[in-house]
Amino acid sequence: MILVDDLDSLQTDLQALHTSIQRRIQLLESELVVLNDWQVKRDYNRKRKLSDASEVGLRPSSVTKRQKTDQEPTPPPRHTKKNKTHPTEAAIEPHASKHKSKGKGDAPDRFWAAVEPYCADITEADIHLLQEDLKSIDGDEVHSVPALGRHYSRHWAMEDMEEERREAGRAMENVDTGNRGSGRDWQRDSGMCAAH
């Protein structure tokens, strides 16, 4: 049940929603106009290029570009003097590449050709092969993993302690061998550092 006191707040909320909806509609309409103009301009430019190409007797530029990449080697970049004075040692020959790009429209066909072997029906030969693999695995030694428990924590703690003892022993050996001849100098130097 709506009270009379709530009607004022409800009316202001509805007016605010109405205003925001109107602004959003205007924004969407302006975006639609921009997109439609862009589409019309793109179609017009495409038709104009096609008509210009047909008048001159050429193919559309996209086909020409694609053919250029398939047939002609790309020139070396001319950004530095090194490239101008030293030609590239491995020149690309137009007939050297056997694999030519087939275009962007080929992607779905190539994808399904790659996926098809994995989606094929399972045959009796596949089942027989899997059963043979399972039999060979049964013959091998399979390591059983013990259940988690305190034995892991004890084992790991013992390994850590042994590792720390080995490292401490190595560190002590290094200190002993490095300070044998200069034991007094080291004590004197450490006393001087402490005094400063």
Automatic annotation (TrEMBL):
Please give the GO cellular component terms listed in this UniProt entry. nucleus; SAGA complex
Task: Tell where it localizes.
Answer: Nucleus
Keyword Transcription included in the entry's annotation: yes
Q: Which UniProt keywords apply?
A: Nucleus, Transcription, Transcription regulation
Q: Which GO terms describe its biological process?
A: regulation of transcription by RNA polymerase II
What would be an example GO MF term here? transcription coactivator activity
What coarse category fits the chief subcellular location reported for this protein? Answer: nucleus
**InterPro entries in the record, alphabetically?**
Histone_AcTrfase_su3
Region Disordered: start-end pairs? 49-108, 163-196
Name the domain of life this protein comes from. Eukaryota
For whether the record's keyword set contains Transcription, the answer is: yes
Family from the record: Belongs to the NGG1 family.
Name the chain's protein: Transcriptional adapter 3
Organism in which the protein naturally occurs: Geodia barretti (Barrett's horny sponge)
Which taxonomic lineage does the organism of this UniProt entry have? Eukaryota, Metazoa, Porifera, Demospongiae, Heteroscleromorpha
